[in-house]
Amino acid sequence: MRRLNNKVALISGATGGQGSVEVKLFCSEGAKVIFGDIDDEKGKALETEVRNSGGEATYVHLDVTSESDWQKAVSKSVELYGKLDILINNAGVLLMKNLEETSESEWDFVHDVNSKGVFLGSKSAVSAMKISDGGSIVNISSIAGLIGTAMAPAYGASKGAVRLLTKSIAVQYGPDGIRCNSVHPGIIKDNPMGEKVLQNSPVSNDQLLADVPLGRFGLSKEIAMGVLYLASDESRYVTGSELVIDGGRFAK
Amino acid sequence: MGRLEGKVAIISGASSGQGRDEVKLFCDEGAKVIFGDIQDEKGKALETEVRNSDGEATYVHLDVTSESDWQKAVSKSVELYGKLDILINNAGVFLRKTLEETSECEWDFVQSINSKGVFLGSKSAISAMKKSGGGSIVNISSIAGLIGVVALAYGASKGAVRLLTKSIAVQYGPDGIRCNSVHPGIIRETGMGDTLIENLEEDYLSDIPLGRFGIPIEIALAVLFLASDESSYMTGSELVLDGGLVAK
After folding, report:
1. Could you give the 3-state DSSP secondary structure of residue B88?
2. B235/A251 Cβ within 8 A
3. What burial class does residue A210 get, using C-beta atoms within 10 Å of its C-beta: 0-12 exposed, 13-18 middle, 19+ buried?
4. Which residue of B has its CA nearest to A167?
5. Burial class of residue B201 in the structure, from the number of CB atoms within 10 Å of its CB (0-12 exposed, 13-18 middle, 19+ buried)
6. Residue B165 has what DSSP assignment?
């Protein structure tokens, strides 16, 4: 039996990179997936691709900073399948600027997408999940939400906010059977955000790798497998936890 | 295809309780399992049970405080299957005593099983894993290895496991050997959990956001994830399974 049979999942930021890998993996594990993003053309193309390979995925326009977009996405899930079991708050932006270079408007933009987006998504999903007698929310934070980084203070702060928002949701909605956990990837090489880190890092890629015990950067699929575990009923006693997937960098 | 197809695993403390669930789950997922304990009769019975349902499991006598027992267990794995991919350091003992109640000999006993047992097991497994081109070690710690509890010798031993895990991860990452810890909350249906629950205050469940105790299969499924190649970029990490207790 597949690991997400009969589950309905909503995934944000999912037309490319990490999110699109999650959409494909979830469909191959039997989930029905609603996925959103702001690039409608790419979203429609992914929808077609997944359906052609026998998966069940539906694209919706979803700007994670818009509460009404979130409400429409959750409504779509309820309209199509009568429920929502899983929310993956995957959308995020990276700003590679130090404190003095970061403008107020850049700070606001990063926090709107990375932190407020998770707040709005979770708020919209929780009411539908209560009706389904529970659910699983997985928030993509970062190792930058656990330790300080020299190159992205606004990003790190927003990911730190996600880490604690996750724990508050876990504590508050545990009695409703709603679980909420965070995933903390290290540097992932095969997605646009990871490529941006590798291109703009003030230190060389070799120096970055020297800090990683496994001696390599991660792959989107490796993050998606962690998300799958947390989304599925296999992790039904896990809530408020942090899954660090970073090749051991943070253990040092 | 099983999630551990082609893998060879050693599991300690596995004649009963949570270890027993891990043996069965790993065999269901296609692994070949060597499992050890000091309860030989129960171990042999589990071996028969698993084999009768087409699983491949072999019992060995394994006192985790004995380096020679560990070496024999690892040798058995290499002798039968030519390699070792996975080690689950599951054996553990619980002592519910405060600082003043704990004798020196009780302290030593708890540390020797819970902490030194993990050291000896990991040390014995590493050389075989290096030859296999890598491996995955999963150490069962506890939420008592993250936060303070009354059972202080137990907590200290589990805190040691947490950091031993990270040191192994850092040191053997370049050899492709991963090492992660699992931190269960209170798990019923195990000898350890049931003893604890009997002595808890009645309103303890109100501290757990999910409002219930865990069960062994929930831990085993996490151990499976960390043992398998699905977690191939995870090392030095902590997987907390406690119904939300530590998040508060």
Report:
1. strand
2. yes
3. exposed
4. B247
5. exposed
6. H
DSSP classification of residue B214:
B
Each residue's pLDDT tens digit, A125-158: 999 999 888 999 999 999 999 999 888 999 999 9
- At A128, is the secondary structure helix, strand, or coil? helix
- B209/A171 touch (CB, cutoff 8 Å), yes or no: yes
pLDDT digits (tens, 9 = 90+) for A186-222: 999 999 889 989 998 888 999 999 999 999 999 999 9
Please provide the distance, in angstroms rounded to a whole number, between the alpha carbons at the two ends of chain B: 39
Residue ranges of B 204-223 with Cβ closer than 8 A to chain A: 208-211, 214-215, 218-219, 221-222
DSSP state of A113: I
Structure tokens at B76: 């058995």
Rounded to the nearest 10 degrees, what angle do helices A117-131 and A67-81 cross at? Answer: 30
**For residue A149, which of A114, A204, A186, A189 has the smallest C-alpha distance?**
A186
**pLDDT tens digits for range B109-166:** 999 999 999 999 999 999 999 998 999 999 999 999 999 988 999 999 999 999 999 9
- Measured in residues, chain B has a length of 248
- Asked if A25 has any chain B CB less than 8 Å from its own CB, the reply is no
Distance from chain centroid for Cα A26: 13
**Quick check: is B172 catalytic?**
no
Place of tokens 């070799």: A206
CB contact residues (below 8 A), chain B span 159-198, against chain A: 165-166, 169-174, 176, 178, 185
Task: Answer whether A240 sits within 8 Å of B170, measured CB to CB.
Answer: no
ipTM: 0.92
Instruction: Tell me the angle at which helices B40-52 and B17-28 cross, rounded to the nearest 10 degrees.
Output: 20
Residue of chain B with shortest Cα separation from A252: B170
Nearest Cα of chain B lies from the Cα of A40 at a distance, in angstroms, of 31
Q: Splitting chain B (248 residues) into consecutive groups of 10 residues, what average pLDDT does each group show? A: 96 95 98 98 98 97 98 98 98 93 96 97 97 96 94 95 97 98 94 83 85 96 98 98 96
